[in-house]
């Protein structure tokens, strides 16, 4: 269990990225025509994920310290709520059978994600 405020923030951000990446992977595997997706909402979800990755980058590069962690924790809470609402909006827009497929695919997508997946772009950044 993470003990320091920075470790708790890191864990929260990792969970948020895992949720979004799992959702996108599951969405890719359900056989729904991607041209019928709400691209504005999907783009907003990807932007929230990028914001989350940016915060993780800040932790990795020690730009977030115990003196400013609360500010970033508040930002992470807003990102979480927004991403959760966007995922729900995208799911709700799917026809019923595809919602069921998505629900069935999510646990599999989640179980196959690793920390390497979560940190891939972050660790590749200069």
Characterization of the model:
It is built from 5 helices and no strands. With 126 residues, the chain is mainly alpha-helical. The radius of gyration is 15 Å and the shape is elongated. The mean pLDDT is 91.
Fraction of helical residues:
over 70%
Tell me the span between the first and last alpha carbons. 30 Å
Unreliable parts: none
Tally of contiguous helical segments: 5
How would you describe this structure in keywords?
126 residues, 5 helices, mainly alpha, elongated
Q: What's the gist of this structure?
A:
The chain has 126 residues and is mostly helical. It contains five helices and no strands.
Question: What order do the helices and strands come in, and which of them pair?
Answer:
Blueprint: H1 5-28, H2 39-60, H3 69-93, H4 96-112, H5 115-124
């Amino acid at each position: 269990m993470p003990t320091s405020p920075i470790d708790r923030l890191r864990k929260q951000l990792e969970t948020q990225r895992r949720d979004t990446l799992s959702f996108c992977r599951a969405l890719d595997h359900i056989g729904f025509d991607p041209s019928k997706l709400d691209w504005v909402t999907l783009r907003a979800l990807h932007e929230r994920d990028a914001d989350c990755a940016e915060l993780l980058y800040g932790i990795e590069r020690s730009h977030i310290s115990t003196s400013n962690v609360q500010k970033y924790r508040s930002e992470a809470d807003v990102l979480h709520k927004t991403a959760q609402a966007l995922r729900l909006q995208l799911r709700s827009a799917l026809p019923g059978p595809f919602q069921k497929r998505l629900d069935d695919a999510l646990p599999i997508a989640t179980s196959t994600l690793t920390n390497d997946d979560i940190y891939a772009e972050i660790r590749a950044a200069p």
